[in-house]
């Protein structure tokens, strides 16, 4: 091909990570089940020798995700989203301070506090939608700051499960002004919705378990950086800590990512339509989705994302009991944790003791899938009516 125009993400998900084209060669990469490689003597950089350090079945997915995030380097595939988050947090220098959104994924917040308890790192928890407060916390002149800047800013946008939207470019600028690294958990938006590296972030992490793999059949994670030293540090972390992906899981993630653009397009459209209808439902006290014109995150999401994601926050009338009754009353929606699968699912987040106390007890997180939107609506509507007692 002559100097081609850059491929669009909807094409990258399909075309990246394919084997070289050879007559009678396969169009998909093989799964190589081998813990070790024939090897003797010095090992040149990049040569395979042991499958904890590197294995070829990771590469097609790593290249595809690297291309999707617009990264100079392939992604670093890890055994779970939390393994990727641990790798990114390992970049925090000893005794350094990390600023974390209070409604980031609850296990991320717990991990940061655990790090603080074990290593003397410091954690400042912020409302990531409150740009002024985050900037003050990063500089160290927030309410409990001592004037010394943070070493890392953790960003999740939209947040899980509160769906707050951060002003990513403004936060990146403030963090870089004081020399802090910026890590972004891009699980909710997916690289189709936003590319944090292009917005200036130093590190991006994903729970590949969710949209990227997309079928609720694997647990995997990935970390990316454009910076050669940070990319090398993430790879080194993986080799030293050993939280690696199995070849079969890596292959399933590649198989899943092929339809990412189609799945996200459909689930986002479903989510926006359901949000619009839920906002008018007599059984609903509050619905959050950045697509809604009066949602606090709407303007920012419209400016910095493509689409508004496929997660909804819903609080039914009637509190916790109504929320639990709704989860019990659905027939098509699956009562389950996790998100980003082709199937629609929902859960009350505070059923988990680790979930942050400022998340309302009656908040349901809905992961909207790719089913027919009318079927999803009918089931939600009957469950809402049954759970809240509203009629008409
Ligand atoms: C699920 C999730 C994680 C954790 O990923 P695992 O693959 O479950 O380890 C991290 N961040 C976000 C936003 C998530 O939704």
From TrEMBL:
Modified residues (N6-(pyridoxal phosphate)lysine): 210
Known cofactor(s): pyridoxal 5'-phosphate
A Pfam family that the UniProt record links to this protein: Cys_Met_Meta_PP
Signal peptide: none
E.C. number: 4.4.1.2
Keywords from the named record: Pyridoxal phosphate
GO terms, biological process: cysteine biosynthetic process via cystathionine; transsulfuration
Protein name: homocysteine desulfhydrase
Organism of this sequence: Cellulomonas biazotea
Lineage, broadest ranks: Bacteria, Bacillati, Actinomycetota, Actinomycetes, Micrococcales
């Amino acid at each position: 091909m002559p100097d081609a125009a850059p491929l669009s993400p909807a094409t990258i998900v399909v075309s990246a990570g394919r084997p070289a084209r050879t007559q009678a060669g396969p169009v998909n990469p093989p799964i190589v089940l081998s813990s070790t490689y024939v090897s003797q003597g010095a090992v040149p950089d990049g040569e395979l020798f042991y499958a904890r350090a590197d294995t070829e079945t990771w590469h097609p997915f790593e290249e595809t995700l690297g291309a999707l995030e617009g990264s100079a380097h392939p992604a670093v595939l890890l055994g779970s989203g939390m393994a990727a988050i641990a790798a990114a947090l390992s970049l925090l220098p000893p005794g350094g301070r990390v600023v974390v959104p209070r409604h980031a994924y609850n296990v991320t917040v717990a991990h940061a506090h655990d790090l603080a308890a074990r290593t003397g790192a410091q954690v400042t928890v912020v409302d990531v939608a409150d740009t002024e407060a985050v900037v003050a916390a990063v500089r160290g002149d927030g309410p409990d700051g001592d004037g010394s800047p943070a070493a890392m800013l953790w960003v999740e946008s939209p947040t899980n499960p509160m769906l707050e939207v951060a002003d990513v470019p403004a936060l990146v600028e403030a963090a870089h002004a004081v020399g802090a690294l910026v890590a972004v958990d891009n699980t909710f938006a997916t690289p189709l919705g936003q590319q944090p590296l292009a917005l200036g972030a130093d590190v991006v992490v994903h729970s590949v378990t969710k949209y990227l793999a997309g079928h609720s059949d694997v647990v995997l994670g990935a970390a990316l950086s454009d910076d050669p030293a940070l990319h090398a540090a993430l790879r080194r972390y993986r080799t030293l800590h050993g939280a690696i992906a199995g070849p079969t899981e890596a292959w399933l993630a590649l198989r899943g990512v092929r339809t990412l653009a189609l799945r996200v397009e459909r689930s986002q459209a479903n989510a926006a339509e359901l949000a619009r209808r839920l906002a008018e439902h007599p059984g609903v006290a509050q619905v959050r989705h950045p697509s809604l014109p009066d949602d606090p995150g709407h303007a920012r999401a419209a400016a910095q994302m493509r689409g508004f994601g496929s997660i909804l926050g819903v609080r039914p009338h009637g509190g916790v009991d109504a929320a639990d009754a709704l989860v019990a009353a659905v027939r098509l929606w699956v009562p389950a944790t996790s998100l980003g699968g082709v199937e629609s699912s929902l859960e009350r987040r505070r059923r988990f003791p680790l979930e942050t106390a400022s998340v309302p007890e009656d908040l349901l997180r809905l992961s909207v899938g790719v089913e027919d939107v009318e079927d999803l609506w009918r089931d939600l509507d009957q469950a809402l009516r049954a759970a809240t007692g509203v009629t008409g």
